[in-house]
Structure formats: C-alpha cells, structure tokens
Amino acid sequence: MDLGLKGKVAVITGASRGIGFETAKTLAEEGAHVVITARHEERLIEAQTAIKEATGVEVDYAVADVTDLSAVQKAIADTASKYGTIDILVNNAGGHRAGSFEEVDNDAWRFDLEIKIIGVANFTREVLPYMRKQASGSIISVLSNSGKTPGPKSVPTSPARSAGLAVIKELSKEYGEYNIRANAVCIGYIRSEQVENMWQNDPEKPTWEEFSKQKAKDTHTPMGRVGETAEAAKVISFLASDAASYVSGTAVNIDGGASDAM
C-alpha cells in the first residue's frame, strides 16, 4: 500500500533513539522529508548517519529540548523555511518516572508534565499555523497504555499520559474543521533502549527471547512477547498518512493486547 507520504514534511521529537528513531526511518523510507529532534546533538548525528545507512535517505536534525520554547520555535521555523510547510508532527519525547503517590515529589511531577504536556504544547502550537494555512496536517502523540488504565505506583507517568490523551482529543475537536487530524498511540512493552537496559542488567542473564517471554507474562500480555520498535513505527506512519484520512481523535493500543481498555 502506498501511504501517500512522499514529499510530506515530518517533524519527530525524541527521535535519536527508540520509537522516534524507527518512525523517522520508516517515514524516510516512504519518501517523506524528515526532521528529527532531540536534546543531544551527538545522538542526533548518530541517528542521522544510521538512517542514511539503512535507507539511503539523509534526514535533517534540529537540537531542541521540547521544554525550551525558543529552541522549539527555531526548529520549526528552520524546517518551514527549508521545506515551505509542515505536514506531520510526531510528539515522541518523554521520560519515565513511576512510584508510589506518597513517595513521588513535585520535581518528578514537574518533569513528566513539562515533557508530555508543555513540550507537546510547544511543538504543536508552532506547527498549527502551517497546517491551518494548507488545510491539512497530522499530529500523533506517543503515549502509554497506562494513560488509559493507570495502575498502582504509576505516578506521575500515568496521569501525565492521561492528560496527553485529553490534549489529543481536544485538538481533534478544535482543528478538525481545518482537516487537521490528531491521534495517539498507547504503547505497552516495546524493545526500547530502556527495556534493552533492563534485559542487559537482569541478574539471571536470560536470552532476549526468555526475557521477552517473561516480561510479557509479568505484564499479562496475551501475545506473549515484547513488541519491536518497528511495529510501533508502522502504526504511527499509518496514522500520519493519507491512508488514515478519516481517523482522528483516537488512541491506538500497541501493546500486544495487554491493556484492558479499548
């Protein structure tokens, strides 16, 4: 299926590693002009090189902390100056801090909310004028299935993701008249850098297959394994594309069936 992404301009936050990196690679393979952003230039250069080696396509990069409004504004202005517009925004930047409600301090709350709410607002606010002007656009936020069904000892990450879902729903309602779509993906256990580190540091030294199977059992994942970043990237790319032209305001679970929520 041709997703109709050739020539589209996509900005992806938190794209030097993991799902963001894999999404950038997938969109580049589909012919999109891709700009990857993250906080550390050296990691962005590594990602740019890896994507070029894998796809033959050179993506652009912009150093931008999502919470630094001036850096965000520069990244979007530079992208629009080069390509004329912005068609796709993937809000992927994030951290993960989870603990007992009584033990988590306000600094941890601020950290998660700054990234998943203020950071999303910063990038989204900057791309909306371009999308409104051309009467089209796709915004995707990468969140967690815990945003739908928070578990115990999951603050502040679960409430921050729940708020992120509300932002997506609001955007779909307010900007649908401009043919701007807003959707989310709710991730379960995916083979991210964080999960890789958990595996490498496991004192039992299991194989990846053993670790994946056990993690799926621990998280009640019916499909019996940890997901791959490429699997998430394909869903995100679909939502970004014209193939999903009437999909807006929804949140797609990418968790192997783990979540109890639809």
TrEMBL record:
Q: Which UniProt keywords apply?
A: Oxidoreductase
User: From what superkingdom does this record's organism come?
Assistant: Bacteria
Gene3D superfamilies under this entry? NAD(P)-binding Rossmann-like Domain
Any Pfam family the entry gives: adh_short_C2
Q: Name one GO biological process term.
A: bile acid metabolic process
Any one GO MF term held by the record is:
oxidoreductase activity
Q: Where is the signal peptide?
A: none
Which PANTHER family has this protein been placed in?
Answer: 3-OXOACYL-(ACYL-CARRIER-PROTEIN) REDUCTASE, NADPH-DEPENDENT REDUCTASE BACG
Q: Which family does it belong to?
A: Belongs to the short-chain dehydrogenases/reductases (SDR) family.
Protein name in the entry? KR domain-containing protein
